[in-house]
Structure formats: C-alpha cells, structure tokens
Design brief:
The structure holds two protein chains of two kinds. By secondary structure, chain A is α+β, with helices and mostly antiparallel strands. Chain A has a domain at 449-513. Helix content of chain A is 42%, strand content 16%. The chains are: A alpha+beta, B mainly alpha.
C-alpha cells in the first residue's frame, strides 16, 4: 500500500532590474538577497539560521551504479536523533558571504536567495489542492515583496523613479541560455520499490507529461511545448545545474532515511496555470502510487531513448510523432500517457479515494481532449494558452515567431504582477481555476494543518526568540533541545493543543517528546 | 524620444543558479510528424468549436486589445529589454 504522498515545490524566480545610473547597483546574487529581505518584511517572515549541517546528500542509485557522490557523507540515521551541534562559526561566516538569508514564512514555507534567484519553497502538503494554493501564495508573496521594494527605491531615488523597475518572472529560462529550476518533491516509501525500478517506471511519465504541463517557449525561430526539456541531457544523475538528468538521484530525505525517499523531480516547467499544476502533480502522484503498489508493468512503458524523446516531444506540437519503445513498438506521447492512465483506471477505478478518482477523471479528460479537441484545453494548459496568445498576436502583426515582440509577450506571460499576461487572462476569466483567491490568501498566512509544516510554523509563531536553527525536518532551540518530525507528524491534531498551552519551547519539547 | 542607452544602466539578473551548458539537441531539430498533415495548434475545424474555446479566444483577444490600448509601446519596452540583455 502506497504511503501518503506528501508533496512540496521549489520555485526559483527570474529577476530583471531596469536600473538608472543614479540608483544603487546590485549584483545578481545581492539583488536576489534583497528581494528575500523584502519577502520577510512584507509577508511576516522570520529570518532563521537554516541548519544545512543536518542535510546529508547521497546518490539514490549508489547501490546500483557503484558510484557514491563525492559530496555524500553521513547518512541521516547515523546522526544523533535529538541533539545536534550548532554549526561552526566558519560555516555561518561562509553562508553569510554567499548572501544566504533564510526566511521562515507564517505558512511554514521557506524563502531564500538561491545564488542569483529568490526561491520560494512551499510547506509540505498532503493534497495537490493545498499545494496549488501554497504555490500560488508564493507568487503573491513575491509580488508583495517586489512592490514594496520598488516603493522604497522610488521614494529614495525620486529623480529617476520612473526609470527604475524590477520585474519577477515565474519561469525557467532566460535569453542567455540559462535555465533555473521549478522542482517538485514527493515522499516515497523507500522499501516499496528499488530506486532503479522507480526510475525505469517513472521516467517515461516524466518525459511525456509535458503535453499537459509544459509552459511553452519560443526556442530559436519556433515554439516548443516545454521550457526545460532541451536543457536535459542525461537519464539519471545527482547534479541539478549542469548535464541535467531527467531522473535526479539526490537522496536527501529530510526525514527518516530508512523509511522515506524524497523524490526530487527537477525536469518540470514552472506553471502559471492552476490546471497544469494539478495535472503535473496530481497525475505524477498517481504514478508514484502505482509504482509503490507494484501494479505498473515497466515493459509496457519503457522508452528506448527517453532523453531524446523528451527533446522531440517538446517540439511535437501536433502530438503525433511516434517514439520507439524498448520492445520496438512505436507510440505517441499521448499513447504512452494512456498506458499510465489505463493502469490508474484499473487500480483506482473502484477502490481509490475520492481524490484519486478525481485525478483519474481529469487525466481521462485531458488525454481525450488532447487527441480529439484540444481547443477545449486552451483554458487549462499553459503551453496551449500561451501558443494561442502568441499566435493571435502573430496574425495581427504578421511577425515571425522569433520577432522581439513575440519574445516579450511570451516572457510577460510569466510576469507575476497583475499586469502580467497570464494574470490579465485571469482577470478576463480565461484560465480555469482550481483554487479560489480566498484559498490563496489563507495559504499566504496559514500552514497546512495535516503535515509537519504546522508544527514548524506554529513554533516560529509562538516562540520566535527560542529558535536557534531550523530545517525541513525540525527545530532546534537555544538550549540545544530539538524537535524532529517525519512529514506526516507535527500536525494540528497531534501538536495543536500542546502548542497553544506550552509556555516555552523547552516545555513544548518535553510534552511532545513524552 | 528619450535615449534609453543614456538613461538606463540596466542590470539583468540571470541564471547563475544553474549555469547552462549548450543543449545537446538544438531546437532546430524538428521531428517529422508521423503520417499526419501538420495543423497549427489551437485551430480547430468549425464544427468542433466549443463554447469554452470561444470564451478563451475572446478573452485572449481582449487581453491583446488591452495591451495595445494601454499604450504599451513594444518598441520602447523592447529597447529597454535589449539593452538589459534580457529576453
């Protein structure tokens, strides 16, 4: 039986600063860091020391490839379970020089500058609906920070205020050929399936799912379905910033390493569309449950060359190209998705939860419409919506795909301001919504109640001065006492009353531990 | 018209988090559709037109109208953009 699929996402935002001479110059990483400062200021965030020292990384396929990553060191289970040392001064100093500023937000999310990008990581969520609300909350939080930063800067530099502008984009690429991440995380049962089998059964899904969750982009002189696909060149690997692998083998569970794998999916596009988000994460969740329940036949779904197929599917706007399977069959991307759907229909059709059945219905609808009437999916799928927007502009102005106005129009689809092109479409009621504005507003201030994010956010709110350091797994107090939670622990039901009644963090630790 | 070159010293912040290697497979490599005539995405035969799609289409037209009516001068934005080295 598959374990509950607790999930989260990490989104790096692109930055663009229009900068008059009179205003201060910022290096990219410095600018990302300043944006995070404004996130803390405007969203009620709290600067924390992030306990990187607790985070241990290994290669998920180490037992199969015989290769251990050079950065890998102690597995988490060898660390003391409760008390851990405070990071050394040298470590802290190195972190600060790297403009590291970690902000814990009231919803249990984390914001920090990841080199040249401000990154927003959602809290752990039990449902895709909650995760979408939390991811959209990240867009609103970033936009509030941007607005406040510009207000302050424009007041400080009145003479050149009109020429000063900062834009934030939720996307994956820039015009220099760089790509940055929109990663997904899913907790998987370590004992349910071997990592090698997990990879073989999941990868065909990852390379074909872009047909409903690609964000679309102009590449060279033509439009492609996915922003990220062409940036991947390997089947598997530990790395995320070069020679990117479709299946990332980073084994860093942020939980009990004997029980959990935190599957780190790095090959997805950043989505503006809530329905694309639902399909990306909801259907991937189902596939992982199928894999854990061992009902998927890898021989049916295995592709001969998944990496090449990933690139080619991204260029196959008609979704009609055939891709060679491991057993020499030739199937379209839709056909391959149908194999997964068929397994899901059989497995969840009668015994699934309401949520699983809902994803199955959405999956059936999406594949049917992609095959027979894709116009009906325009409101749901980022790449189709963006394609129509650009195509109409192209028809009006008779310009080629690689014309600069087309590129600008595509870029501003991801601008998170209300005036960004996707948000303009929302104001016209074009994209189908999954969550309400009330859901998003609530998610900006409140953690999910059914994961450990609740405890993390609650401790930060009740005892802000008692925290020495934090990471995804737990909180360490000033006296060295700590609380560690597996993802499904620390919920409102489990710790809510104790959190409310405890008068100190030490007391909370005692009561929760007992 | 203001000379943007004089006014701006734009600083674009770009993907240092993940420095990009040139893609192995360039986007120029267009796969051939297997046995079907290419048809532009989003254009459907009239008898397949549906209300949902009509709404989406109208909404997209509205947004394009709005962008142009709001006086967004693409040339100006593009000039800023070009000088910033951005997209």
């Amino acid at each position: 039986m598959a374990i509950p699929k607790i999930m989260g996402t990490e989104t790096e935002y692109g930055l663009q600063l229009f900068h008059p001479r009179e205003a201060p110059f910022h290096y990219p990483s410095e600018l990302a860091s300043i944006v995070v400062d404004y996130v803390a200021k405007t969203a009620g965030g709290q600067f924390v020391q992030w306990a990187y020292e607790f985070e241990n990384q290994q290669d998920l396929l180490r037992d199969f490839a015989g290769v251990t990553n050079s950065h890998a060191h102690r597995p988490l289970r060898e660390l003391p379970p409760v008390r851990r040392p405070w990071p050394s001064d040298d470590f802290i100093s190195a972190v600060r020089q790297d403009h590291r500023r970690d902000v814990l937000l009231p919803n249990g999310a984390r914001a920090y500058p990841d080199h040249a990008h401000p990154e927003y990581s959602t809290p752990e969520c039990m449902t895709v609906h909650e995760l979408i609300a939390q991811e959209k909350a990240g867009e609103r939080i970033m936009e509030l920070a941007r607005k406040e930063m510009m207000r302050v800067y424009k007041e400080a530099f009145v003479d050149c205020a009109d020429d000063l502008e900062l834009l934030l984009y939720k996307m994956n690429v820039d015009s220099f050929g760089n790509s940055f991440g929109a990663h997904e995380n899913y907790f998987v049962d370590r004992k349910a399936q071997s990592p090698l089998q997990l990879m073989h059964e999941l990868v065909p899904h990852l390379v074909t799912r872009i047909i409903y969750c690609g964000s679309g982009d102009i590449k060279g002189d033509h439009f492609e379905i996915s922003q990220r696909a062409c940036h991947f060149s390997e089947l598997h690997g530990l790395q995320t910033t070069h020679d990117r692998p479709v299946f990332n083998t980073r084994d860093e569970p942020h939980a009990d390493a004997e029980k959990y794998i935190r599957l780190h999916v790095i090959c997805g596009d950043a989505n503006m569309s809530e329905v694309s988000l639902l399909m990306k994460m909801g259907f991937t969740r189902l596939v992982l449950e199928l894999i854990e329940d061992r009902v998927l036949d890898v021989n049916k779904v295995a592709l001969q060359d998944p990496v090449s197929a990933f690139h080619e599917i991204s260029q196959d706007l008609e979704l009609s190209c055939l891709y060679r399977m491991a057993d020499d069959r030739q199937l379209t991307a839709i056909n391959i998705q149908e194999l997964y759907l068929d397994a899901a229909q059989k497995h969840f059709g009668s015994d699934g939860t309401d949520e699983q059945k809902m994803y199955v219905r959405e999956w059936e609808r999406a594949l049917d419409l992609l095959k027979n009437d894709r116009g009906k999916l325009t409101r749901d799928v980022d790449w189709l919506l963006k394609y129509d927007l650009l195509d109409k502009y192209r028809a009006r102005h008779h310009c080629p795909w690689d014309a600069q106005p087309m590129r600008l129009l595509a870029l501003r689809y991801h601008d998170i301001q209300e005036s960004g092109n996707y948000n303009r479409l929302v104001s016209k009621g074009v994209p189908r919504r999954v969550v309400t504005e009330e859901d998003i507003q609530r998610a900006m201030m409140s953690p999910p109640e059914d994961t450990r994010a609740y405890a993390r956010a609650g401790i930060a709110k009740r005892f802000p001065h008692a925290i020495r350091c934090v990471n995804w797994e737990g909180v360490v107090g000033m006296n060295g006492e700590s609380l560690l939670f597996n993802p499904q622990n620390g919920t409102k039901k489990q710790v809510g009353a104790t959190l409310d009644s405890a008068t100190s963090f030490s007391q909370l630790v005692k009561e929760v531990s007992s | 018209m203001t000379n943007m070159k004089e006014v701006y010293r734009p600083q674009v912040v770009y993907g240092a988090a993940e420095q990009q290697q040139p893609p192995k497979y360039g986007p120029q490599q267009q796969p051939q559709p297997a046995g079907t005539q290419p048809q532009p995405v989003g254009t459907q035969p009239a008898d397949q037109a549906v209300e949902d799609h009509a709404d989406a289409s109208d909404g997209i037209d509205d947004v394009l109208d709005e962008l142009e009516e709001d006086g967004i001068e693409y040339a100006e934005l593009l000039e800023k953009n070009r000088q910033s080295g951005g997209q």
